[in-house]
Structures are given as structure tokens and as C-alpha cells.
Amino acid sequence: MTHVWANPETQWGGFHRYRRYWLNDKRVLILPLKRRVDGKEVPASVGEIYKSLEGRHFESGEATGATEILAELGVNGISFGHEVLEAMLTLRNDGVPPFSTQLFLYDHSSGSDSPSEFYTFFVVCDGKIVSEEVRFHDSPESGFDPFVFESGDDSFWSRIAKCIGSERGIAQFWYRKFYNETFVGQMVLLGSPLLRWKFDGTAKTHALLWVLIILTSLILIRLGR
User: Fold this and answer.
1) pTM of the full predicted structure?
2) Which of 19, 80, 90, 144 could lock onto 6 through a cystine, CB 3.0 to 4.6 A?
3) 185 with 164: CB under 8 angstroms?
4) For residue 123, what is the enclosing H or E element?
């Protein structure tokens, strides 16, 4: 089991690489937040605020767009709800329906100064990668809810797909595309020899060429004796 800092009693198996995740709309929409109304903080939910901002747009690709809009509304509360809402607003602003996306984990790190975990995903929708970096974190006061992320393995058809091997194949296809065709993926690949070997066809080719050169050299040395 993976420890959940926000709720240590939670029994959770953790995220897995090479697996697809979806946002569970029922759990996402009820995540608690607060917003300022007439100078007072009142309870609100991610769903309520998300709906109230329908039609509100900011410049596409502007990283702080959603953050600034939420600051204007005086939205605060648990950081996890804030992170999820920001991600949803940014996706919708780019014409991507958040609950039709697939998320793929590619980085996990732990905080060095405080108990915390950081999970970073790339996002796929309609046959293309629509976001290269969406991050969520778990810490004692974050309100992190791991069951907001629904694994493909939870559904009947995904279990069938897993049995015939197609679920892992789909995930590997998107990881290969991410590592070879996106800027963030390329940066991650450069920092990991293991990932380069697994996903970079050029690295494998170079390695095989060196093996062939070495073998050829050994054969020539043996023949020359």
C-alpha cells in the first residue's frame, strides 16, 4: 500500500506507470473549496465553481490564466481541490473536455523538507497529447484524494483489454509518443538512460551498432591470429 499523507488511514495501491487514468467526475465535482462572497468566505465545491466559470476564457497557453481567475474570485481551501480545478479550467479553455481525457503518470518525487509526494502526468484526448505537464501533490493538509483518479483497470472492458494485452500496448504507445515527440518528454528522456533505452529507437540502434562493431573486431582479431 502507498502512504497517503492527507489521510494516513486510506488504503491505496498507488499510481502505476504504463496505465491510463481518468478523472472520476463524481468525486472531482464534490471536492470542497471556499470562495469569497460579499467579503465573506463561504463553502463551495469544485463543481460549483467550475460551472460558474463556464464561458470564461483566458489566453491559450497562458500558464497563470486559471490561477488569476480563481484569485479574482477569492477561491481558496484545500490545495488539491485548487490544483484539480485549475487543471480542469485550463483544459476546457483549450477546448478539451476534462472528463474525456486520459492521464498518464511519468514522474513521481517526494518532498525533501516536508512530508509530501508530487505526481506529474501528461494528458491525452481525441487521439493527441493535449497537455505535457499536469501536477498534483499529496501532503498532510492538501486534501489529496487518490480515488479522484480512476484506473482503466477498474472497468470490465479494461480488464478484458488487459487479459488480451491491449491495455498495456495502448499505454506504451502514448508513452513512446510523449517521450519522442514532446519537449517535456524529450527533457525527461535525456535525464534517464533507462528510459532512453526503452523508448528511444535511436539509442537502441546506436547500442546495437556498437555491439556489431565489437563483435566484428573480435572476429577479425581471432582470424588474424
Assistant:
1) 0.82
2) 144
3) no
4) strand 117-125
